[in-house]
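Human: Here is a favour to ask of a fellow structure person. Comparing notes only helps if you start from a blank page. Give me a protein, with the fold worked out from its sequence. Please set it down just below, with no commentary around it:

Assistant:
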Amino acid sequence: MKTRILALLVVAALPLMAFDCISDEFTIAINLDPIVGTYNINQGSNPNYGGTATIKIDTLYDVDKYELTGAGLYDIRVSTSGPNLGNCSGSVTVNGILLFSYNGTWTQFNTPQSLLTSRLITRNQAGINTLINAVVNGTAITFVGAGSVTTTPVPAGCSVKVSAYIQAYGHLR
């Protein structure tokens, strides 16, 4: 009997107690589309390549449905497309800050190389912070890629692709 009365008192008191862990807004994970920059290598004898890719944050998720409150980078991948061009090295900046550099053989990058598992990619924390801040603040992201290959002439259709994967979190609007 005492147990039942105690249980009833606890149940009756629950709505009257204030819990910090209960909130009207729940933080939810928001999967953003990958941020992608593809850098075509010009056909011919020039071994250098580069280019700019600008991505608007509001194209990566439903801005009418979610309000971002934070984000984190969970991977960067670099891949090549086309026949073997020898060594492939370069770097990518985000909004003017070095994000990462890469160096390896073209054929190694034919299989996408991941920042998480590959020693061919070297990250720069300041660039990662810049990328995350741009995502959370909703500012455009500009990737500038530059690099070179060692085998020329370069045939048509060769490119280097960079993909950044971001996990954001926030609230429903």
Notes: Residues 29-172 form a domain with the Jelly Rolls fold (CATH 2.60.120). The chain has three helices and ten strands.
